[in-house]
Amino acid sequence: MRILFIRHGQTQANVDGALETATPGPGLTSLGTRQAEAVPAALGDAGISAIYVSKLRRTHETAAPLAAALGLTPIELPGLHEIEAGSLEGLSDLESVRGYMGTVFGWGEGHLDRAMPGGLDGTAFFSRFDADVAHIVASHAADDTVVVVSHGAAIRVWTGSRVANLGEEFTAENRLDNTAVVVVDGSPESGWTALSWGGVPIGGAALNDPGAEDVIGETVDEPAAETSTAKTSTES
Predict the structure, then answer these.
(1) In what order do the strands lie in the sheet containing 145-150?
(2) Quick one: CATH architecture of 2-186+195-207?
(3) Active site residues
(4) pTM of this prediction?
């Protein structure tokens, strides 16, 4: 099946560069709302049969315009939420951000027993996210297309580990802005292949906020190369 992973629209935490992972979390900024409103025009003809969201408020608000346009009710699943920041929650200093990002991308390198300070380890994250993806696949036909509105770090780390033609290095080095879309095809049994990695907002660069300190969407170390043209690691 085909899954369109959409990162939620912008929140104030994305503007401020803060690690914001707690439930229910913040809603969207005015720009985040405009980002969400641009989704139906881009995906309305994609043959979407269901929309899934996490338990965090920002995914519900991001999914709402698309759901209204398609006449669908978003389905909340318990494991699609952002990777919990533990004792780093709410912090925005460089050391805390590096600690968070270093931990989660370390999981993609196989260090699953490495725990977030005051939080969970990689095994716990992949267990909950994998379980929800398996539930989605089991609920649909093999040729169905669904949307999953989730979170920056969660999408990047899961696809980096589970999608054959991406890998942790690619997902760490390529940004994922608010409402950017990653399209994957396959199943847990046959494996997943990325069809595209759209690093910029689905409505285009005009809906990006270059002044935001978006620590979750940015590259881990160096500034990202241009991502307005979707690429996977097999194309670069």
Answers:
(1) 75-76, 48-53, 145-150, 2-7, 181-187, 191-198
(2) 3-Layer(aba) Sandwich (3.40)
(3) 8, 82
(4) 0.92
